[in-house]
Amino acid sequence: MTEAAAFLNVAQSLSGKRWQARPCDERQAMALTQSRGLPEVVGRVLASRGVTEESCETFLNPTLKALLPDPSRFRDMDPAAERIARAIRDGEPVAVFGDYDVDGATSAALLRRFFRSLGADVRVYVPDRIKEGYGPNAAAMLRLKGEGVRLVVTVDCGVSAFAALEAAADAGLEVVVLDHHAAEPRLPPAVALVNPNRLDEDGAYRTLCAAGVTFITIVAVNRVLRQSGFYRDRAEPNLMEWLDLVALGTVCDVVPLTGLNRALVAQGLKVMARRANPGLAALSDVAGVKEKPDAYHAGYVLGPRVNAGGRVGASDLGARLLSTDDPMEAMELAQRLEAHNAERRTVEQAVLDEALERVAAEGGRETDLVFVAGQGWHPGVIGIVAARLKERYSRPACVVALEQGADGTVIGKASGRSVRGVDLGAAVIAARQEGLLIGGGGHRMAAGFTVAGDKLEPLRDFLHGRISEQMAAAPLVPTLELDGALSVGGANVGLVTMLDKLGPYGTGNAEPRFAVADARVVRADVVGANHVRCILQGNDGARLKAIAFRALDSDMGQALLTGRGTPFHLAGVLRIDRWNGSEGVQLLIDDAAPARSA
To answer: Where in the numbering of this chain does the DDH domain appear (predicted)?
Structure first.
C-alpha cells in the first residue's frame, strides 16, 4: 500500500472521512517486535508513537524518578516556593484562587491537601462561571484581602489577569501565579509567576497542565521546608499519595500523555485504584465504576462529573469533593455532582441542537471555522458543545453564549476547541491585543473569551482570517488514522490485554484504533437515548460485540441498524468487556464504510 492509498480503500466513509494508516517506521516496528517478542501489530503501535528500542523501557514503565525535573529549572519557581513556604511557617492566611474545570479543581485540592498535611489550611475560592467568569477578578481579590488573606495562589489561571493582579498589588495583596495557559511578553504583577508556557521558558515542559505545575511547585515548597528544618519535629508528607489528583487533572485537560505527563498519569492511576481519596471513591461509586480505573474513566466518567458543578451548579463543588477527608461529605457532594451532570446533559443537548441548526442555516459560510452564537445559551456547556462541533465538522469551533444586561448591553461568553495543527489560543490572544475582546486566552487546543455584542462580527472575521492562515499552511483533510486491520476473530482478549499495557492513552499517545474488516451485522438495536449496539460476525464465524455512541441520528447509525447481513469495515477501539465474571471484547465504533465499496 502506498502512502497515497486510502486504508482498505476507504476514501470516504459514512462520516465523510478518509481512512489512512498511521505513519510508522517499519524497520523500528520490526526491531521492537523481535527484541521484545511482541506480536507484529503491537510493534507497529509502539513504533507509530515514536517509541524506539532505546526508549521502550521508559515508555512501558514511566517513573517520576527518571522524568520529574528539578523544580528550580522553571522561571520564578524558587521565589514562588520560598513565599509559599514562608506563609506555611508563619501561619499566614492563604487563599487558593482556582478555575472551575477539572484541572483547576484538582490543582486547588492538591494545595489544600498539602497545607492540611502540615497542620494548616487554605481558603479555596472558585469564581462563579456566570456571575464572575474565568480567572481572577479585582472584586474577588479585594474581597479576599478584606477577609485577612495575605497571600493568594492562583491555579490554572492568572497569566492574563492583568487588571485583577494590578488591583491586588495596589491593595498590598501578594499573589503567586501557577498557570499553564499561553503567556504574552508582558506578564501581570506577582511575587512569582510559574508557567511552562512563559515566553522566556525553553518549552521543554510546555504540555504540563496546571495540576502538573502545581505538583512540581509542591515538590519545590516541600524541599524549601525540609532545608529550613521544618520537618525536624514533624513527619514529612508523602507527596506521591496525591498523584491521583494530578492524573485526573492531566487526563481531563487533554494534554499530551508523553514524557513527564505519561509518568504522572501512569503512577497516578495506580494511586487512584487504591481509593484513598474519599471524594474520588464516592464519585466512582456514584458513577458505577467497579473496575480498575484507567485514563478512560478519568476523562469520560469522573471528569465530566467533577466539571458539572462548575457548569450548572456551584463552582467549588469539584474542589470541595477532591479535598475532603469525610466519607459522608464526599458521598453527599458526589451525589450532588451526579445530579448536576444529568442536568448538564439535558442543557448541553438543547444548546447543541440549536447550534447545529444555525450552522446548517448558514450553509457553510466559513470553510475553516465553525462560529455560532446564541441568546440564552448556558455558558456552562458551551465548551462541550464546541468540542462536539469540532468533532462533527473536523475544524475549529467557537460557541458564544450571549446575554443582555440590564442596561441593554449584550455580552458574549465563549469557548472554543481546536484541531491538530491550529493554535486557537494564539488567535484569541491576538484578537484581544487587537481590541476585539474584553478578555480571553487559552492554549493550542482550547480557548475562552468574553466579547461585546457589537464586536461579534469583526471578531468572527478576525479569527477566521487567523485560522485560515494556519489551515493554508497545512490543509486540513478529514481523516481517520488506523493502526491496522483485524478480522473479527483477531479482535480477541489476548490482543486487547497486551495493548492495555501500552497505556495510559490520550492525546499524544492515541488509543490504538483498528479496522475490523469484512464484518457482517448480525443484530443491531438502540440502547440508551441514541446509541447503536451491534453483534458482528466475521467470515471465520467469530462474533464480536460493538457499540456506536451517539450514533442514532447519523448516517453510520442508520446504516448499522438497517444493514443486517451487510458487510462493513468498522473502525474503532477495542475494550475488554467484563460481564458476570467472564471477559470478552467490545468494539467502540468510531466510523464505518460498506465493505462492498472497498
So the answer is: 94-250
* Residues paired with 568 in a beta bridge: 519, 594
Nearest to 547 by CA among 592, 578, 502: 592
Q: How confident is the model at residue 1 (pLDDT cuts 50, 70, 90)?
A: very low
The alpha-carbon radius of gyration of the chain (Å, integer) is 25
Over residues 431-441, the mean pLDDT reads 93
Residue 300 DSSP symbol: I
The two beta strands, 446-452 and 439-442, are antiparallel
**Cis-peptide, bond into residue 504, ω within 30° of zero:** yes
Q: In 10 A of CB 360, how many CB atoms? A: 9
Q: How remote is the C-alpha of 22 from its chain's centroid?
A: 22
Full-prediction pTM beyond 0.90?
A: no
C-alpha to C-alpha distance for 598 and 594, rounded to whole angstroms: 7
Query: What is the residue type of 436?
Result: L
Mean pLDDT value of segment 55-74: 96
For 227-239, what is each residue's pLDDT tens digit?
A: 999 999 999 999 9
Averaged pLDDT for residues 507-536: 94
On whether the CB atoms of residues 243 and 268 are closer than 8 A, the answer is: yes
Residue 429 has pLDDT above 50, yes or no: yes
Listed as own residue / partner, the contacts of 163-171 with beta carbons closer than 8 Å and 24 or more positions apart are 163/137, 163/138, 164/135, 164/136, 164/137, 164/138, 164/140, 164/188, 165/136, 165/141, 165/189, 165/190, 167/138, 167/141, 167/142, 168/136, 168/138, 168/141, 168/142, 171/141, 171/142, 171/145
Q: In whole angstroms, what is the distance from residue 196 CA to residue 453 CA?
A: 34
**Cα–Cα distance list, 551 to 480, 526, 556 (Å):** 17, 9, 7
Query: SS3 for 465?
Result: helix
155 by Cβ neighbours in 10 Å (0-12 / 13-18 / 19+) ranks as buried
Measured in degrees and rounded to the nearest 5, phi and psi for residue 171 equal: -85, 0
Q: pLDDT tens, 279-328?
A: 999 999 999 998 999 999 999 999 999 999 888 878 999 999 999 999 99
Q: Check: CB of residue 180 under 8 Å from CB of residue 196.
A: yes
DSSP states of 15-27 = TS-EEEEPP--HH
Residue 143's alpha-carbon distances to 27, 203, 315, in angstroms, are: 62, 35, 17
Strand 543-548, strand 531-537: pairing: antiparallel
Euclidean distance between CA atoms 21 and 375, whole angstroms = 43
Q: How confident is the model at residue 4 (pLDDT cuts 50, 70, 90)?
A: very low
Task: Give the contacts of 73 (CB within 8 A, at least 6 positions apart).
Answer: none
Exposure on the CB side of residue 396, measured as CA atoms within 13 A = 30
